[in-house]
């Protein structure tokens, strides 16, 4: 399956570099380039483009605005943020806008391929350094944890509160089990309970929910 891809960045040198990186990935066809979000939106809406590699800081229309508009008007398009920004606010805004992935500009073809494949499976992809930024975030939400829930019985257990950030960090059930000295089946059970309590379908949805509700506490 060919992934018809648009690359969006206002720096010509980076566009050339990204074109080279993508040329090393099979099943990726670059069908266009745009230097701002406004042009990107027009191109995507008037073509059969399926993937967008989106910069954030651009003139006229930035990547966050463009991502939000594209996801609203053509939600099936997959968007990966490719940027130099690894601060919490930019990550959070792109996730809220609907980005399916977030990688840094120093990434190589191997990681981009992993991002494509992960997103193809219905999950979101974040570079390891991005996940570290999220997990280091020292947030002070006006909502307490308990304020997020309507019923006392829906509160996370102490074990679930341990497991949830590790799920968001991208650890597998086996890795979490080893880290917490519990069985893998126990982790799987807790994962199901966490998703059920938040009414979420998968770990990808949990990442977005945690960001939007400031649940990534230190």
Automatic annotation (TrEMBL):
What's the domain of life for this entry? Answer: Bacteria
Q: Which key words tag this protein in UniProt?
A: DNA-binding, Phosphoprotein, Transcription, Transcription regulation
The protein's matches in SMART domains, at most eight in alphabetical order, are given as: HTH_LUXR, REC
Transmembrane segments in this chain: where?
none
Q: Which residues carry this modification: 4-aspartylphosphate?
A: 55
**Residue ranges of domain Response regulatory in the record:** 4-120
- Give the HTH luxR-type domain ranges: 149-214
The record's section on PROSITE patterns has: HTH_LUXR_1, HTH_LUXR_2, RESPONSE_REGULATORY
| InterPro entries noted in UniProt | CheY-like_superfamily (IPR011006), NreC/VraR/RcsB-like_REC (IPR058245), Sig_transdc_resp-reg_C-effctor (IPR016032), Sig_transdc_resp-reg_receiver (IPR001789), Tscrpt_reg_LuxR_C (IPR000792), WalR-like (IPR039420)
The answer to keyword Phosphoprotein applying to this record is yes
State the PANTHER family in the record: NITRATE_NITRITE RESPONSE REGULATOR PROTEIN NARP, TWO-COMPONENT RESPONSE REGULATOR
Protein name, per record: Response regulator transcription factor
Q: Which organism is it from?
A: Runella salmonicolor
């Amino acid at each position: 399956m060919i992934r018809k891809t648009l690359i969006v960045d206002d720096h010509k040198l980076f566009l050339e570099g990204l074109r080279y990186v993508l040329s090393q990935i099979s099943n990726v066809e670059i069908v266009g380039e745009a230097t701002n979000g406004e042009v990107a939106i027009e191109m995507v809406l008037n073509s059969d483009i399926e993937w967008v590699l989106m910069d954030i800081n651009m003139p006229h229309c930035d990547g966050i605005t463009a991502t939000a508009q594209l996801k609203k008007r053509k939600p099936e398009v997959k968007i990966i943020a490719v940027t130099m920004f690894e601060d919490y606010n930019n990550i959070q805004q792109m996730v809220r806008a609907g980005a399916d992935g977030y990688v840094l500009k120093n990434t190589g073809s191997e990681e981009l391929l992993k991002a494509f494949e992960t997103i193809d499976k219905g999950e979101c992809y974040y570079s390891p350094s991005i996940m570290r930024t999220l997990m280091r975030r020292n947030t002070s939400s006006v909502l307490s944890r308990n304020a997020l829930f309507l019923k006392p019985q829906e509160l996370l257990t102490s074990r679930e509160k341990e497991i949830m950030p590790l799920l968001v960090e991208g650890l597998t059930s086996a890795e979490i089990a080893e880290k917490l000295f519990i069985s893998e089946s126990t982790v799987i059970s807790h994962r199901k309970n966490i998703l059920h309590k938040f009414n979420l379908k998968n770990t990808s949805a949990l990442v977005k929910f945690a960001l939007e509700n400031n649940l990534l506490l230190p």
